[in-house]
Amino acid sequence: MADARDGQSSKDRLLLAATNLLAEGKDFSTREVLAVADVTAPTLYHHFGNKQGLVDAVARHGFAQYAPTTDVGADPVEALRAGWDQHVEYGLDHPRFYARLYGNIEPGVPCAVTGPALEMLTRTLEPAAAQGRLAVDAQTAATRILAANVGVTLSLIGQDPEHRDPHLSAAVREAVLDSVLAEHDEEAPAGRSTAAHAVALAAALVDDSLPLSPGERAMLGELLARVAGAEHP
C-alpha cells in the first residue's frame, strides 16, 4: 500500500507516527495515530492487526536501531561490553522512547523487544560458552545481563542528567560479567572452573557429527547442566 504523495508506504507512515507519539511519552489512541499518519483504520488493521500490534512493531523496530553488530572474529566478551555500552547510550539518547520500549509490559508477558534482545544476546554469548569462558550457560548469562543492562539504563534515565553517576553503568556491567564469566577464577587451570568446562561441553553438544543418540544428548546435557548449576545456583 504505497502512497505516491510522500514516497512512503502507509505502513511506514503508521510506524513513524506511532514512533514519534511514543517518543513524546504519549499513550496515543488509534484515532490519533491514524490522523497523524493520514491513513484509515482498515489500513492499520491490515498491516498490524490492532493498536497493540503496531506498538509491538515499533518496539521491534526501535530495538533493531541499536542492536549491536559484531564481527565474526571479534572477542565475544569485548563485543558484550561494547553492546552493553551501546544499549545504555541509546537509552540516554532516546529516554522516552526507551522507557516505552522496555516499560510497556504486563505481569508474566514480556514486552515485544525482550524476546529479540535476549535471542541476540544469547547468540553473542554462544562463542564464549564454547570457549569455556562462561560459568553458566549462554541463555542464563544473557538473561542476567539483559536484566541488569535494562535496569541500569532505566535507572540512569531517571537521574538528573547533571548529577548522573558516571561510574554506575561500568560498575554494574563488570559485576554482572563477573557473575557469569569463568575467567575470574584464578585457581582453575587457564581461569576455567569445573562449571566453565561443563558449559563448554554442553555448547559442543549441538555438533551433529558427535556419535550420540538424541537420548544420550539429552541425558548428557542434563548432567552437564547440573554440574554447572552446582557451582552457580
Secondary structure layout plus pairing:
Elements lengths: L9 H14 L6 H8 L3 H8 L2 H16 L9 H18 L1 H9 L10 H17 L7 H20 L10 H13 L13 H11 L9 H18 L2
Percentage of residues in strands: under 5%
What's the helix count? 11
Low-confidence stretches: 1-5, 184-192
The profile of the biggest β sheet is: none
Which term fits the overall shape?
globular
Q: Structural class, judged by helices and strands?
A: mainly alpha
Written account of the structure:
The chain has 233 residues and is mostly helical. Helix content is 65%, strand content 0%. Helix 5 packs antiparallel against helix 7 (114-130), helix 7 packs across helix 8 and helix 8 (138-157) packs antiparallel against helix 9. The protein has helices spanning 10-23, 30-37, 41-48, 51-66, 76-93, 95-103, 114-130, 138-157, 168-180, 194-204, 214-231. The model is unreliable at 1-5 and 184-192 (pLDDT under 50). The protein is built from eleven helices and no strands.
Overview features:
mainly alpha, 11 helices, globular
Quick description:
This protein has 233 residues and is an all-alpha fold. It contains 11 helices and no strands. The longest helix is centred in the middle third of the chain and has 20 residues, at 138-157.
